[in-house]
Structures are given as C-alpha cells and as structure tokens.
Amino acid sequence: MKQIIKKCEVRLWAILFWLFVWQIVSIWIDSDILLVSPLKVFCRLGELVCVATFWKAVVFTLSRIASGFFLAVMTGSVLAGLSSQYHYVYELIAPIIVTIKSVPVASFIILALIWISSKNLSILISFLMVLPIIYTNVLSGIKSVDKKLLEMAEVFCISRLRVLRFIYLPQIMPFFISACSVSLGLAWKAGVAAEVIGIPKGSVGEQLQQAKVYLDTPDLFAWTFVIVVISIVFEKLVLIFVKRCAAWCVIVRVKF
C-alpha cells in the first residue's frame, strides 16, 4: 500500500514542468480568454484572497460539501451494519443504491432543484455521491470478518460492544479508508458541479459561473485552483484522522 502511495506522489519538478508548458502554450496562443498564463492566474488569486467575499465563498462551499460527506459516512455505515444483520434491509436498500450509482449527477442536480433550495443543494448531491461507496465498502468489510473470531467471542461470552471494537472495526477499517479515499474527491466534484448549476448565492460555484458568463478566464482558473487545493487539504486531513483511528484499532486488537 505504501509503495502505491509513493508512486502516486506529485513531485515538485513535475509541477514546475507543466507550469512551464502552460506558460509557453499561453504565450503561443496569445489570448487571455482562451488560455491565461499561470502568472496572471496566481496574481489574480493573490487579489482574491485579500477580499472577504472569497473566504465567505470558501467557507460556504466547504461547510456544505463536508456536511454532505460526513452525513453519507454515518448513514452508509449504519445502513451497512443493518444490511449485514438483516437480509430484508439489504434487499430493501439494494434498489436505492443501484439507482444512485446509475443516475447521472446532472439528473440528480436538476431533480433536486425542484424539491430543495439551491443553498443546500451541494449537501444533498455530495451525500448521494458518497453514500453508495461508503455503504458498499463497509458492507464488504463486515462480510470479510473472520468467522472463527466471532465464534471465539461467542464461546467466551464477550460483549457485543467489545466484539464491535476489537473484531469488527479492525477488519472494516481498510475498506473504510479505501471508501473515504475514493469518495472525498467525488464529493467535491459533485458538490461544486451542483453549485455551478444551482448557483447558490455566496458559493464557489456561483463565482465559477460568473467567471464563465463574463469570460473572466483568470478568475475561472483561480477559483478552479482554489477548489483543487481545498479538496486536497480536506482529503488529507480526513484520511489522516481515519488512518489514526485504524492504527488505534490495530493497537487495541493486539492488546485484546
């Protein structure tokens, strides 16, 4: 796993190379509307971070996408637990999960705009995109639990709480980490897409839409860069927290 992560690390020289290519292409095209230079983008970004509106938009979008993600994590985990215990719950939820996986994000966004305010649209869309991933992975983790350990716990009359903490959690955490890693990026993509279509006031999506309407390419690239940075930072923080929880599960399992 660590070898795969190392292979996926982004190197500074690679970033500088592509920035150089970007600069050369922008000079060759010689049109800020089609492709603005990276220097102008970062200059515009420097101007944006000095304005209160920028931070309000970032907080607005971050709070809603994070809310949708964490709601999906909690709901998906609970539903996976119920589905593993009760087959009729699994059968009841299966059509919903398949539907969410199959329906395009744009369709969900348009349908959701009929029912809810655009202000909370990104919460719902992030929730819907993350839910199937968390549910499927956690359910797979539960099913992978060693049956012999469960039989041992039953023989020694170990409480359900201790079984959950010392047997289930260590087995589920690798699946849960994988689900979070995949769904965090998806939550941001879907959430921002929902804001671009719904255009809630004071959001990052609104800023992107305005930049597109007025052909303000420096703003468009600057806000896109902001989305990428926030998404990466948010993903890193969540995964660090989850991995520490996983490490704790391994430690307590060894003690057990």
What does this structure look like?
By secondary structure, this protein is mostly helical. The protein has helices at residues 2-8, 12-29, 38-48, 52-85, 87-102, 105-115, 121-143, 147-155, 160-198, 204-213, 217-255. It is elongated and about 75 Å long. The model is unreliable at 1-7 and 252-256 (pLDDT under 50).
Short account of what is shown:
This protein is mainly α. Helix content is 85%, strand content 0%. The model is unreliable at 1-7 and 252-256 (pLDDT under 50).
Task: Name a few traits of the molecule.
single chain; 11 helices; elongated
Describe the protein's topology:
Elements: H1 2-8, H2 12-29, H3 38-48, H4 52-85, H5 87-102, H6 105-115, H7 121-143, H8 147-155, H9 160-198, H10 204-213, H11 217-255
Question: How does the overall form come out from the CA principal axes?
Answer: elongated
Chain-averaged pLDDT = 85
Structural class by secondary-structure content: mainly alpha
Count of DSSP strands:
0
Order of helices and strands: HHHHHHHHHHH
Percent range for helical residues?
over 70%
Alpha-carbon Rg, integer: 22 Å
Q: What fraction of the residues are assigned to beta strands by DSSP?
A: under 5%
Terminus-to-terminus distance:
25 Å
Largest sheet: none
The protein's oligomeric status is single chain
Low-pLDDT regions: 1-7, 252-256
Number of helices: 11
